[in-house]
Amino acid sequence: MVGLDIGATKVLGVATDGDGRVLAEVLTTTPLGADAVVAAAADVVTELRARTGHRLEGTVGVGIPGIVDVARGAVKHAVNLGVEEEWLPLADLLSVATGAPVVVDNDVNAAALGAAHVTGHQDLVYLSIGTGLAAASILDGRLRRGAHAAAGEIGHISVDPAGRPCRCGQVGCLEIAASGSAVAELWPATDVPPARALFDAAAAGDAKAVRVRDAFAARVADAVRLVALTVDPEVVLLGGGVAQVGEDLRVAVARALAVQATASPFLRSLELPSRLELVPSDVPVAAVGAALLGRVSP
């Protein structure tokens, strides 16, 4: 099986065996524009074939940001990739380029599938804290996409009517305060990822960093509480670029959840801090999940 994780900066492709174990990986830079993205994805498949020595004729799964019509294999609003088409028929174009059947889904959905496969949890919410904020749900072993493929777009829930404008056209959206972009704005850094720089500074005792870290963790805790009260999953997995901070992030968010529950016996009864986990850092869950898409897509 082949899985492609197409992001704003990179295309990561994996070839896996029938059990989802990674046999080979290929990483390349993501170009801008529909034609260039398709060509880069096809090149990754070609290189995976070369590295494995197999034709890899099975389904190629693709996880990509944007709104995805899984049945049609089409994507729109993938603006970070320079894909301006109302609906780009990505599956058809990539199938022609690779000679293999292709299935396409949202990248966070793919990551949730991969996380479920790797962790063994079949009732989870995967919370992606990256450039933006989004979630994907595996409920009783089934991926929930939503009637309009918008399930999990929690970053665009307006939580502050007097807040700043969001790129979605609303104001005060949750991802303005609970995303990698938010951290980069509040704690800019050039030599290391901003989230890592922030948490390191806070750990070193920088008072301002502690305030910024705790405020950020509280907003991520809001997102965790939101998904927990909506679908009540067994676990909430923290993923995305900010999750590379590791255990420091989980501890900060768990602490914020505990503080938020101080005055609420109801929230305390849900034991949200203990249901919070990090996505495994040693497996490319989004690419592995993309490879599994052929098993779950219509």
List the helices and strands and how they pair.
Layout (H helix, E strand, L loop, with lengths): L1 E5 L3 E7 L5 E8 L4 H19 L7 E5 L2 E3 L4 E3 L13 H9 L3 E5 H13 L4 E6 L3 E7 L2 E3 L35 H7 L7 H10 L3 H25 L3 E5 L7 H14 L4 H6 L5 E3 L6 H7 L1 H4 L2
Parallel strand pairs: 1-4, 4-7, 8-11, 11-12
Antiparallel strand pairs: 1-2, 2-3, 5-6, 8-9, 9-10
Summarize the structure.
The chain has 298 residues and is of the alpha/beta class. It is 38% helix and 20% strand.
Description:
- This protein is an alpha/beta fold and about 300 residues long.
- Helix content is about 40%, strand content about 20%.
- It is built from 10 helices and 12 strands.
- Strands 3-2-1-4-7 form a 5-stranded mixed β-sheet. Strands 10-9-8-11-12 form a 5-stranded mixed β-sheet, with helices on both faces. A two-stranded antiparallel sheet has the order 5-6.
- Helix 6 (about 205-230) crosses helix 7 (about 245-260).
- The radius of gyration is 19 Å and the shape is globular.
- InterPro entries: ATPase_NBD (IPR043129), ROK (IPR000600).
Supply database-style keywords:
298 residues, 5-stranded mixed sheet, alpha/beta, globular, Nucleotidyltransferase, domain 5
CATH hierarchy: architecture of the largest domain: 2-Layer Sandwich
Assign the CATH class of the largest domain.
Alpha Beta
Give helix % range: 25-40%
Instruction: Report the C-alpha radius of gyration, rounded.
Output: 19 Å
Distance between the termini: 17 Å
Tally the beta strands: 12
- Derived from helix and strand composition plus strand pairing, the structural class reads alpha/beta
Question: Order of strands in the sheet with the most strands?
Answer: 3-2-1-4-7
The major pleated sheet works out as: 5 strands, mixed
Query: Beta-strand level of the residues, as a percent range?
Result: 15-25%
Backbone shape: globular
What is the count of helical runs? Answer: 10
Query: What is the CATH topology classification name of the largest domain?
Result: Nucleotidyltransferase, domain 5
Overall pLDDT, averaged? 93
Which spans have pLDDT < 50 for at least 5 consecutive residues? Answer: none
- One letter per element, helices H and strands E, the order comes to EEEHEEEHEHEEEHHHEHHEHH
Number of domains: 2
Tell me the name of the CATH homologous superfamily of the largest domain. ATPase, nucleotide binding domain
